[in-house]
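Moderator note: this is an archived Q&A kept for reference. The question asked for a predicted structure of one protein chain; the sequence and the answer are reproduced below.
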Amino acid sequence: MKNIKQYLDLLMEEGLVVSYNLYQKAKSPIYHMTYGSGDAKEDTLFLCKGATFKKDYLLEALQRGAVAYVSEQYYGTEEEVPYIRVKSMRKAMPVLAKAFYGNPDEELFLTGVTGTKGKTTTVYYIRAIMDEYLRAKQEKASGLISTIETCDGMSCEESKLTTPESPELFRHLKNAVDAGISHMTMEVSSQALKYHRVRKIKFDVGVFLNISEDHISPTEHEDFEDYFSAKLSLFKQTKTACVNLDSDQAKRVLAAARMSDQVITFGTKGNPDILGSNICMKDRTLSFDVECREFRQHFTLAMHGMFNVENALAAIAAAYAMGIPVKYMAAGLAKTKVQGRMEEYVSADGRLQVIVDFAHNRLSFEKLFDSVLMEHPDARIVTIFGCPGGKAFNRRRDLGLIAGLFSEKVYLSADDPGIESPQDIAREIGGYLEVTGCPYEYIEDRGQAIQRAIQEVERKTVLLVLGKGNEARQKYGKISYKFPTDGEFVQIGIREYNRRHMRRSAIAG
């Protein structure tokens, strides 16, 4: 437990302090730390963060018992409240959170994964391999921080951000240490890197999957260079870097990776340290071979999608960096499936196959359609997707053109429209679909769009339901409403499809 003065000293060491006044309360102990005014309680250090922060939030926190605050500006209050004014709250928060939770990151073996596509699947692959190994050693299963869920040994909860804000992040790391966990794997988003959520953390292994233009908007990254540079900055805080040589911009990624202490490369071309080859889909099983200095091994994956070999090679490279024996790599990859990633549903007559996937940007669409065309060359492709409001505006063009080129029909539906009109978003995407000559229909409700697409199946069809994966919410305005997942809608639709076709068969018989 530290007092206010000790936190001030830490911020001064970082050169972040602009001004302060502790009002003779320097030794007041801090037992809680939060940036949520509703979470403040007695002896809280309150963090005034966010572009939309209001003084009212601070006053509420003080009323609830906060004893001091850290902010980028001074807020006059009726009573003398200790404050520390800093140059950047984004840079200050990880310093404060790390100290408050007792440097838990230094007691864990941390693996961070970044890239435009495949982060979630890769962290699940790494965790599966690691847990096979830890189980054999009779140690506790590893922790996970992902887009889907956060599991820290104390609880497993739905994630709100791909990478949590630093106070939550360090809390989860502390929970993991207290629970006796030794290893943790996490997704590291470009936003987390740009806005310093993972500042002060040193990753034992850092994985760079791939790069493609995404998250370009006034509220995210101003251009591709800003986005790419944010991702590359992971290597500044990485001991061993794992780099995909098949990725676009691989030379630049490899150059940046030299900021790490060690570099391990993976891929299917050239001469990487971890070389994948003989990728094959046979009897509905995806397999490939891997060769490296330590072993030659045949692997199988429980998940479909040729692009998942890239994610698996990344996980193998990370496990290789950790010194995990190959038998645990093979065992973990052979059984792992991830919610909302290449979830497959097939009708009783085999005519309809539905794939639910989180694919939501140019790179993920390109890789998904490549895989579907390879695995289902004679099937009709129908696609359902939408684009979020207020961000990543380039997706509307990219996804419209890609889906239009490879689909026989597209259904546009809502996908977190936020403060924008979902119809306006669909109209913009539709303009690019029209360029490709692909027919499309706008049905705002995703459930209704899925039901309509299934009802219209008359011949062998692969229906792609893309963008939300296993997400169970839709954001309208500034509120996220609970909503069934795409997989739940698909299961309802296929049950109805099966009943309808059984009746037809009975009548025909």
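Archived answer notes: The two ends are 77 Å apart (CA to CA).
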